[in-house]
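User: Quick sanity check before I run a bigger batch. Here is a single chain. Can you write out its predicted 3D structure?
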Amino acid sequence: MPLSLTVLGTASPHPAPDHPCSGYLLRGGGAEVWVDAGPGTFAELQRHTNPGRLTAIWISHLHADHSADLLSAVHAYAYGGLTPPVPVPVYAPVDCAQRLAGFFGRSDTGFLRGLLDFRPLYDGHEARHWNLRLTARAVAHDVEAYGLRAESQGSVLAYSGDSGPCEALDELARRADVFLCEAGIDFHREGERQVHLTPEEAGAYAKGAHELLITHVGPGLTRETAVKRAAAVFGGATSAAVEGGTTTF
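Assistant: Done. Predicted structure follows.
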């Protein structure tokens, strides 16, 4: 079975009507993985699958626009009749369970164990589910953050997560069928820490990939402008991730 990527949301830094924050449904090798859980994406996830059947959840970093809808998943699993047959593995930075417990005013995380199985990410972390392999690479951001390389039966998806310029992005995108990459900023301000990519940088890092899919376009940019600027550098097939769209490769 080839990989498929369904876009649940791409908004930055907050959701808008019909425009949830970052989230994707990755299918391949017999697995279904919710990649990033930005606000609004749990509702969109239900258009495409039963969340109780998820194989895993993968979270790039703990900023709310990529992780806050884990709270919705807990409510659905605990009270909404969508309880999975076994706790769903959640691959995320180390403090994810504690952060989620805080929403419930709890300092312990034990009450989550029957629903979610938290497994901390680290650079080079690898997980296998059926014929799907997920590999994490640490990327440059202002919190602990990871990009993803997903592989199944010869098909490869690379995902930048949120990242500034770093060598890990070159490695993630190399020989990928699709590079899903943020274009979060219009330009870098002098003296400012570089924690997002411009469209031109997204295009440059995509040079090792077959196709570039621009996502998480920040304020001050439009999807159309970001795609045009990235494509001018990349030189290959470039398009924007749009909610509800599915790419199979």
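The helical segments are 41-48, 64-67, 70-79, 96-103, 167-173, 199-205, 223-234.

User: Great, the batch can go ahead then.
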